């Protein structure tokens, strides 16, 4: 035991003299040759609503089946004058939040993403249709610095800050049409098309173009949405609606139109195609 402690002390001393070494329990690590091909695990941020109240959200997200890295209450508490968010899973570990998913060529988004849940009931059904519930200013005030910190630490691209409905449009609708994508994008925390380019591109697209739906689906696939080779009309509607909820929430019926295609083309101009 005394010899082992002496060896650890020697390794620690060597580490002080040579920063490439790190002493561990029973061995040392030489960090002289870092690989140039190393990349951060985290490439995407996926945003969700919980569709539950706070106690139910906590119970669900701390269970064995579903989890997220962060949870933001509707009215976060404050610590030293700053909004406090709950971290439920370390960023170095996977959280089970995305499920079967696809974004810009990648599947299994749980492996490469950070999941952020916002406590929000989602919507309620009424005779007149779905009534969506807004996010609180306090939530967005807490989300903004959290997103900025994650983006800076991992170098996440604007196009890779997405909603659950973007990566799983056939299954999910969160964070819904009331999520403030445009204000966040204006801070560099997400993608948004240039209005003047949308207007210019819109002029060159006919609403009665018989190929409009297929042109839009092709553009969405190039931007990063997952589209199987064959889609039913209902599946087409869902993926178009997911895109519209994100980038044109005033009308998200899932119907292809010239404005939606112009938005998609403006995004492709600005951010490029998925690799």
> Going by CATH, what is the homologous superfamily of the largest domain?
Peptidoglycan recognition protein-like
Count of individual helical segments: 9
| Helix and strand pattern | HEEEHEEEEEEEEEHEHHHHHH
Strands of the widest sheet, in order across it, are 7-4-10-3-13
GO molecular function: N-acetylmuramoyl-L-alanine amidase activity
EC number: 3.5.1.28
InterPro entries: Amidase/PGRP_sf, Amidase_domain, NAMLAA_amidase_2, PGBD-like_sf, PGBDSf
Family: Belongs to the N-acetylmuramoyl-L-alanine amidase 2 family.
Describe the 3D structure.
This is N-acetylmuramoyl-L-alanine amidase. It comes from Duffyella gerundensis. There is one protein chain. This protein is an alpha/beta fold and 275 residues long. The protein has three domains: 1-36, no CATH class; 44-186, Lysozyme-like; 195-271, PGBD-like superfamily/PGBD (Muramoyl-pentapeptide Carboxypeptidase, domain 1), CATH 1.10.101. It is 37% helix and 16% strand. Strands 7-4-10-3-13 form a five-stranded mixed beta sheet. A hairpin with a 2-residue loop joins strand 11 and strand 12. Helix 6 crosses helix 9 and helix 7 (212-223) packs parallel to helix 9 (258-271). The protein is globular, with a radius of gyration of 23 Å. It starts with a helix and ends with a helix. The model is unreliable at 10-17 (pLDDT under 50).
List the helices and strands and how they pair.
Blueprint: H1 2-17, E1 21-24, E2 27-30, E3 44-49, H2 54-61, E4 70-72, E5 78-79, E6 82-83, E7 86-87, E8 102-103, E9 106-107, E10 113-118, E11 123-126, E12 129-132, H3 137-154, E13 161-163, H4 164-167, H5 181-186, H6 195-203, H7 212-223, H8 233-247, H9 258-271
Parallel strand pairs: 3-10, 3-13, 4-10
Antiparallel strand pairs: 1-2, 4-7, 5-6, 8-9, 11-12
